[in-house]
Write a structure and sequence with these properties.
Arc Repressor Mutant, subunit A, Dna Ligase, domain 1, 2 domains, 3-stranded mixed beta sheet, 6 helices, flat, binds zinc ion
Length: about 170
């Protein structure tokens, strides 16, 4: 179903006009090993593999790979950006409000833009980005015993919005 295996390796970097570096290869590998990880998650994995590598180098590699379409960046409200290598199939995401775990859900229709807008206002729509929010089975089971205390407030999921904004601004430079 997914095209994960096709985006590994130096050839793909070259084909997308990117210079092949150890950092970029390690970043691609890390994202493929741990889809939907944050930039910090990727940094930890890359550092474990390469040893000395700066956080900024990993962020730069993520930015370059995302710009070239090798990786996809998902930016859920109130959460750090997540990265994945499953690109181009217009799949969507489920996110647990409680633990933040994100999983793929296939495109509801099968191809982009998936959803038909009630009114397109004359726009040529080419994509609909859908995030389904809720509670994962694990979290639902954990809080089932304490009914009443488990109300989900979207405001409480905003852990590091400012920090994340800074990071994105840096990636754009
Ligand atoms: Zn959960
Ligand atoms: Zn995904």
């Amino acid at each position: 179903m997914s095209s994960d295996t096709s985006i590994n390796g130096p050839d793909v970097l070259r084909r997308h006009g990117l210079q092949v570096t150890a950092q970029r290869l390690a970043v691609v590998g890390a994202v493929s090993d741990r889809p939907h990880g944050t930039a910090d998650d990727v940094y930890r994995l890359v550092r474990a593999e390469l040893g000395a590598v700066s956080r900024q180098a990993v962020y730069d590699a993520l930015g370059a790979l995302t710009d070239k379409g090798l990786l996809r960046r998902i930016q859920p409200a109130g959460s750090p950006a997540r990265y994945e290598n499953r690109v181009g199939d217009n799949h969507h995401h489920l996110i647990c409000r409680t633990c933040g775990v994100m999983v793929d859900v296939d495109c509801a229709v099968g191809d982009t833009p998936c959803l038909t807008a009630a009114d397109d206002s004359g726009y040529e729509i080419d994509e609909a980005e859908v995030i389904y929010w809720g509670r994962c089975p694990g979290c639902a089971a954990t809080t089932a015993g304490s009914a009443g205390a488990g109300t989900t407030d979207p405001g409480t999921t905003s852990n590091h919005p400012h920090q994340e904004k800074e990071r994105r601004d840096r990636q754009r430079q």
